[in-house]
Amino acid sequence: MKPMGPIPPGFAAQTGALTIGGQDAAALVAAHGSPLFVYDAALVAAQVARFRAAMPAGVDLHYAIKANPLPALLARVAPLVDGLDVASAGELARALAVKPGAAISFAGPGKRDDELAAAIAAGATINLESAGEAQRALAAGERLGIVPRLAVRVNPDLELRGSGMKMGGRASPFGIDAEHAAAVVRTVIAAGADWRGFHIFAGSQALDAAAVIETQAATLALAARLAEEAGAVPLLVNLGGGFGVPYFAGDVALDVAAVGAALGDALAGRGAVLRDSRFAIELGRWLVAEAGVYLTRVVDVKHSRGETFVVVDGGLHHHLAASGNFGTVVRRNYPLAVAARIGAAAEGAVSVVGCLCTPLDRLGDRVALPPVEVGEVIAIFLAGAYGATASPAAFLGHPAPAEIVV
Ligand SMILES: *Cc1c(COP(=O)(O)O)cnc(C)c1O
After folding, report:
1. CA–CA gap between residue 279 and residue 216 (Å, rounded)
2. Measuring CA to CA, how many Å separate 18 from each of 4, 28, 111?
3. Measured in angstroms, how far is the CA atom of residue 136 from the centroid of ligand 1?
């Protein structure tokens, strides 16, 4: 038997038949088909409210839409947040459907000239990833006859301790090395661009409040130092994000109240050059991961050499992360349940496997579940972020999953 991660707070208290947004999970599958991603908009709104309650005044909330860019979900999230962060022209188009360009920022390496032009035309802020990109963005602005809004993404000389995915403190395709950032700021200002500020993202999936607090303080100090060096006041300092969610056994939720309190203190003591700046935190998974459930019907229950395999009609082609093949070194179990019998006593361990013809397609490895029959539904939690769009949907030619917001 192997442990599972904790069922997220929005569902943990349930027993009996799982409901999502007050609707019976099996009934949702009957109505919309299987496999099915269901996102509970009220749970996302509750996360936003938690953020607002924890954070000091003057700190904006941005949603990094790569975590979940479903248009129906974006429409619900956009009014609740101050900005949307995008990482491609495709995401930009989705963001523009629900937010004005001025509230959108565009990060990511390898932005093509046509993507830079689309962002400039929309009035979005481009987070510059290199000196070369700065030149191409300036040229695109000139071609369009529009003053581009440019921010400098900094590759910080610090990293988010204990984060699942480190993106700072070393050589990186992301951001301009801190030691060269001020020069690029001066260049874009001298070229007549509308310089917006800094974007400093040091890592992702952090659960340790002390590490986030330390990183935010260091990020603020770095922004002040670079602003002094550049001789320019940033309108906005995007402090990154990296708030994680508990996926696996032993994971404990990030203490956002502690993070917010410490950020209040750090902001109160910030360098004079940042006195009139605004600040933003950009979050993806923390806002949406726990609000999503992946529902998949059992096709077969088979026994092989002493083990039981619950074979479902979904798999890693829809939810790669739950199979342990999206950025994890050791495969561990996401929380899952038999949708009709949440909280029921387990009867031994079963493995829940997807329908793909590869041994990688394992959604639950020897997990304790109550007995389950063909036709019933398995619920895999933490499916709200990096699910459908972060999975190889075309692999093996199965249909795309349905996705709904309730
Ligand atoms: C991916 C990404 C995010 C979102 O990360 P989460 O772990 O989902 O919060 C935020 N900012 C940048 C620059 C990113 O690349």
Report:
1. 11
2. 18, 11, 43
3. 24
Torsions phi, psi for 282 (to 5 deg): -110, 125
Q: What angle do CA 146, 152, 154 make, to 5 degrees?
A: 165
Dist. CA 341–CA 363, nearest whole Å:
18
Task: Render pLDDT for 149-194 as a digit per residue (tens, 0 to 9).
Answer: 999 999 998 777 766 655 556 899 999 999 999 999 999 999 999 9
Q: For residue 89, what are the contacts with CB-CB under 8 A and spacing of at least 6? A: 112, 114, 115, 118, 119
CA 337 – CA 310 distance, rounded (Å): 12
Amino acid letter, 389: T
Q: Global pTM? A: 0.96
Closest by CA to 288, choosing from 84, 98, 31, is 84
Ramachandran quadrant class, 13 (left: phi over 0; alpha: psi -120 to 50; beta: rest): alpha
What is the pLDDT, as a whole number, of residue 232? 97
Residue 257 CA to ligand 1 center (angstroms) comes to 20
- Pocket around ligand 1: residues whose beta carbon is below 6 Å from it? 64, 66-67, 85, 107, 201, 204-205, 241, 282-286, 385
